[in-house]
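Residues determine shape. Next comes a sample protein:
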Amino acid sequence: MVEEKSDENAELAGRISEIAEELVKEKVEKEKAQKAISTFEEQIIAAQKDLAEEKKISNEAKIRADELQKRLLEKAKSLETQVNDLKKENAKLKRKGDDRRREMNELETKYKKKKDLIDEIDAENRNLKKKLGEAKNERRKKESNENDKSKLNNTLKVRFKRLFKKRKEIKMLFLE
């Protein structure tokens, strides 16, 4: 019996040492698990901090995006106003250009009419100058003929006077 009890004790001691080893292993595993849990908890805390930081950054980004959206809308309205103003100005300038083009066409038409009239007057002047030249030539010829006639008349008068003088002289000679 003592042997049985010593065998039992040995068995129990073996079991106790196995259980102790298992407990040590479990304790080590529990410590590892505890470390893993604390590491995981730290990671969760860090992740929560990162998440909070990202939310903060996200909120700031949303705020900036909203501000940018507002600025873009204001800029778009401003640009739209400028475009409308430029369209109005363009329409005014186009009307003004059309008016000037019309005015230029009218002036061109008037200029052509005046030029045609001037050309007609110039042609008429040339014809009149030609006729005047011809008339002057005819007058010169007439004057020349008249001069010739008057010279001839003068010459004839002088000759007749001489003749009459000579005749008188001859008569006087005969009468004497």
Q: What stands out?
A: The chain has one helix and no strands. The mean pLDDT is 84.
